[in-house]
């Protein structure tokens, strides 16, 4: 069974940067997409960024130009580089993979942008 573990969240000032990581463990024989979602208090979970098995990327309009998703296949890890952070980026961030024909979620990591 594949498990995902996120790391890299924390408290950062507006304009700052963070890099989130999502590492997978377990036997992997197929990956379709690796996604980053976020959920702020009182709001629905939203897709932030996605990278496909073919390397194509997609971003929410609210993060385009500021966030970059990437992956290291050898380490079974996907990253989310977040620059120019804003208070409205404050949320719990989750990775979600479609792996081995199943959807797997991580436990989430908190990102707080505040002065």
Characterize the structure shown.
The protein has no helices and 11 strands. The chain is mainly β. The strands form 2 sheets. Strands 2, 4, 5, 6, 9, 10 and 11 form a 7-stranded mixed beta sheet that branches. Strands 1-3-8-7 form a 4-stranded antiparallel beta sheet, with no helix packed on it. The chain is globular, with a radius of gyration of 13 Å. The model has no long low-confidence stretch (mean pLDDT 95).
Structural class of the secondary structure composition? mainly beta
- What is the helix content? under 10%
Unreliable segments (pLDDT under 50, ≥5 consecutive)? none
What is the total tally of β strands? 11
Number of helices: 0
Largest sheet: 7 strands, mixed
Instruction: Please report which band the strand proportion falls in: under 5%, 5-15%, 15-25%, 25-35%, 35-45% or over 45%.
Output: over 45%
User: How big is the Rg?
Assistant: 13 Å
Shape: globular
The termini sit apart by 40 Å
Quote the average pLDDT: 95
């Amino acid at each position: 069974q594949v498990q995902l573990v996120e790391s890299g969240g924390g408290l950062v000032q507006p304009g700052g940067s963070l890099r989130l990581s999502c590492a997978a463990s377990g036997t992997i024989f197929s990956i379709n997409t690796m996604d980053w979602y976020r959920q702020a208090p009182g709001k629905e979970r939203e897709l932030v960024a996605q990278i496909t098995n073919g390397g194509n990327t997609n971003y929410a309009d609210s993060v385009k130009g500021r966030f970059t998703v990437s992956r290291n296949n050898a380490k079974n890890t996907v990253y989310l580089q977040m620059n120019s952070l804003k208070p409205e980026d404050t949320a719990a961030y989750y990775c979600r993979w479609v792996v081995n024909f199943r959807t797997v979620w991580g436990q989430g990591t908190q990102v707080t942008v505040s002065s």
